[in-house]
Amino acid sequence: MSAEVVTSRHNSLVKHARAVRDGKASELIFVEGVRLCEEASRSIVIEDVLYTKELTKDARGATLLEALRLNARRVVAVTEEVLAAVSDTKTPQGIVALARRSRTDYDAFQRKLENKGGTPLIVVAHRVNNPSNAGAMLRVAEAAGATGFVTTVGSTDVFSPKALRGAMGSSFRLPVWTGATFSEVIEWCNHNGILTASTDVRATTLHTDLDWSVSRAIILGAEAGGLDEAASAAAGERIKIQMRAPVESLNVATALAVVLYEATRQRDTQTKGDGRQGSGVG
Q1: C-beta of residue 98 within 8 angstroms of C-beta of residue 30
Q2: I need a labelling partner for 116 at 20 to 30 A (CA). Which of 82, 83, 182, 243 fits?
């Protein structure tokens, strides 16, 4: 740990941090803020930390810093001006961490899903391109009891700074598979007996009409137009959320929340009724 305070924006670590922030170091992710750094420190490997002296004046910040000093490769104090130049937010919280990106390939996802157990409830984000929405979807997925999260080719990076802030730590805990093709996801679901359902405003079946106590994947499309006809047709079921006129659509994260909490309600009701535990993915 350096005892000096970095004052230059041209410092090599500062430049490195900006590169990570801008997605130019694919093996690392940019984690910002006390809450998110706390979550990251419990789940993934922290490489470098940049912080301001103001952080140590707060008990929570000081505790976090001590924990990071035990585990991170470098913990470096910087001026507020330097951190502002690195930060991805308008109001920096005094700390930034550069952490190793978790594996999100198929094999890692499958292993984590098997370890998690239970009846699969998978969220598939197909070409969702807004990082804040993707992060919110991850947070909703974990909160509502989803067991895994998949993003297809063409989707936003769920480990970008904005997506991480939206997820508030869920990205580190929930099994995630990124970069899958749509056909790979459908094939994987079919192979594992996971029934698929897509959200579609043209559907006649309501989301409350499905049996969510079985293994299922819910597929949602991009914010602007949702799923195209081919993708929607590839799913086993098409469902819609009933809305009062003149509203015709919901934000994708909100729609996911509505569907998943119905799934959770049904699953909780069944568990209380017969005490059964679902099977995992093999």
Answers
A1: yes
A2: 182
Same domain, 85 and 165: no
Q: What CATH number is attached to the domain comprising 122?
A: 3.40.1280.10
Domain that holds residue 57: 5-100
Q: What is the DSSP code (8-state) at residue 265? A: H
Q: Would you state the pLDDT for residue 248?
A: 86
| Residue 281 included in any domain | no
Provide the b/e sequence for 142-172 (b: ≥16 CB within 10 Å).
bebebbbbbbbeebbbbbbbbbbbbbbbbbb
How far apart (Å, rounded) are the C-alpha atoms in residues 267 and 101? Answer: 33
Q: Are 97 and 48 in contact (CB under 8 A)?
A: yes
The reported pLDDT for the residue numbered 270 is: 84
Whether the model pTM is above 0.85:
yes
Rounded alpha-carbon distances, angstroms, from residue 273 to 120, 268, 269: 19, 8, 6
Same domain as 125, residue 57: no
Task: Collect the ranges in the chain with pLDDT lower than 50.
Answer: 1-2, 277-279
Nearest CA-CA partner of 71 in 101, 45, 33: 45
189 with 251, same domain: the answer is yes
Q: Is residue 279 part of a domain?
A: no
